[in-house]
Amino acid sequence: MKHDEQVAIVKRLLALRESRRDQEMFDEVKTIPVSKYTDTALLDQELASAFTRYPLIASHTAALREPGSYVASDWDQFPYVVVRGEDGKVRGFYNQCRHRGARLLSERSGAIKNFICPFHGWVYGLNGELKGITRSQDFPCVDKSDYGLVELPVTESGGFVWISRTPDAISDIPAFMGRFHDDLESFEVANLVRYKKTKVVKNANWKLLIKTYLEGYHVPYLHRDTLATAFKRGQLAYDKDGPHIRMMAGRTNLTDITAKPEAEWRILDHVSIYYTLFPNTFFILHPDYVSVNTFWPQAPDRTIWTHEMLYRAEDFNGSSGQSALEKRFRFTNDTVFDQEDFAIAEEVQRNLLHGGSDHHVLGLSEGLLAMFQDNIDERLAIHAAQGTER
Ligand code: FES
Ligand SMILES: [Fe+2]
């Protein structure tokens, strides 16, 4: 984010603090039917559109720096592996042997020289070519060049490796991300280091989990003893680009920034910035670390949540740096997300099944939830229309 833009956003937030209101979203109360979180047919449509036709974040590049380093999918429904080749290029493959379909890599990440199938020992190079068939005399007519790993479209951009089942989807990530791609570059997201990545199954719909992040209304209540002190009078501003939403929340120390000349304003010292990247990533720039959350549906009421924490190596040195990171991770991951945000989302999900209200009602400061839902609904409608044209 260019400095001019940082200053403009801080000014927007200072003005909102004066007015004690979030930036206007919609000018009316909205409702969302609870079937959005329970309907299996709807999930199938989401999987066929949002999760098939758009780029998904496979990994931050920090886990893929060296040739042979790989990251495997967290989601059985899309069993990919991304790996950096000897030539420095990252490639994506189905994590699946061409002989009889065994999973090649069972760890979530690591480093290999070749892919070696655990079932009968076939060997593949980092570029996917089939290099060796064990007992090859038993496969007299099999041409190895016909049995390389099945490749998936992958690209590296803005510090992330993106993958899709649809080749065109990843051809232009800067265009896909619009104005927010520049933020990844100017905050040098590619240079961050991975602290930890966790994976947990939550018993709630994937959209319900993401929506817990999309308003500040709950912060003084649900996070009364945790986040609330950091966001006193933390009004929200937002920007939208295509299907993505950027949300900015002034921290309690927002007004301290005015003591400095504008040329020295650094937005992240006073503001947390949150990106809802369509479809399933929620990415947060905190003042001194970054959280990348992804959500992978398994069922309408069950979702894999991954949380990867990244940091700037020079800001956290030695063992004291590592223990500071651990403290931040426990606070954000264990307390705020898991025990507060997602615990309540799981309660909401349980309640959906037992009757009562058939819709949720969103106040004026909860408009981003409706915007996020509209983004998905619009794309489902486009793909449904394309389907009927065929
Ligand atoms: S399934 Fe991989 S070698 Fe047989
Ligand atoms: Fe929250």
Automatic annotation (TrEMBL):
Q: Which UniProt keywords apply?
A: 2Fe-2S, Iron, Iron-sulfur, Metal-binding, NAD, Oxidoreductase
Residue ranges constituting the Rieske domain according to the UniProt record = 57-163
InterPro entries with a match to the protein in the record: ARHD_Rieske_2Fe_2S (IPR015881), Rieske_2Fe-2S (IPR017941), Rieske_2Fe-2S_sf (IPR036922), Ring_hydroxy_dOase_asu_C_dom (IPR015879), Rng_hydr_dOase-A (IPR001663)
Protein's recorded name: Rieske (2Fe-2S) domain protein
Write down the Pfam families for this protein, in alphabetical order. Answer: Rieske, Ring_hydroxyl_A
- Does the keyword Mitochondrion feature in the UniProt annotation? no
Task: Tell me the domain of life.
Answer: Bacteria
